[in-house]
């Protein structure tokens, strides 16, 4: 049993393709092995880093072409959103509608599953877009590599929440992916921290990591209180929230 447990948790190169298929609209030239499910979650920060690199590259290119900084920041943000098909923004919107639009766990889960966007969702999306655009405009010219670091870091809380919070639904993307092991969860956290500290000045990087971890912990407590655990929407919201607080923290010390 011990041998099988360790074997099942061993990272595989194919996990990267699974992670890209689940978290982005970017494709890799080999077929994902979806049977790996949650054990591929260690690679989530790599997907974030690739998405952040696209945002940084296009935003930097816009600056190089002489476009205003505000336009470059919006282009970088658009690249981040389009690279994921806006799946995390959708999660944030659904969480805002469900958590504050329902009076019971059942009501909240039903609202979160509804494809229509309510007023809470619109407000959450609007604030998210405004905050991220403003913060990217601040960070991009001073610490462009930080966009890669923070995009990677913001994918790690998804894995932690998957591991430590139950899923209150009988079906759905998060349920189908499964629960990552401690090895996988630790691998995702370590990888995200290494990328962050490698691309952001160490003291600032540690501060960014700490604040992002606190934000993710707070969302986890809220999700547990509101719906009894995590869903795919909660995971998406965790990415959005930690990205915002990480960008804000870095912008405050630049």
Description of the molecule:
- 74% of the residues lie in helices and 0% in strands.
- The protein has 254 residues and is mostly helical.
- α3 (44-64) runs parallel beside α11, α5 packs across α13 (232-253) and α8 (145-153) runs antiparallel to α11.
- The model is unreliable at 1-8 (pLDDT under 50).
Brief account:
This protein is mainly α. The chain is 74% helix and 0% strand.
- In total, the number of strands is 0
User: What is the overall number of helices?
Assistant: 13
Strand fraction: under 5%
Helix coverage percent: over 70%
Topology:
Layout: H1 2-9, H2 14-23, H3 44-64, H4 69-84, H5 87-101, H6 105-113, H7 119-139, H8 145-153, H9 156-164, H10 173-177, H11 182-199, H12 202-227, H13 232-253
Helix pairs in contact: 3-4, 3-8, 3-11, 4-7, 5-6, 5-7, 5-13, 7-13, 8-11, 8-13, 9-11, 9-13, 11-12, 12-13
Q: What labels describe this entry?
A:
254 residues, mainly alpha, 13 helices
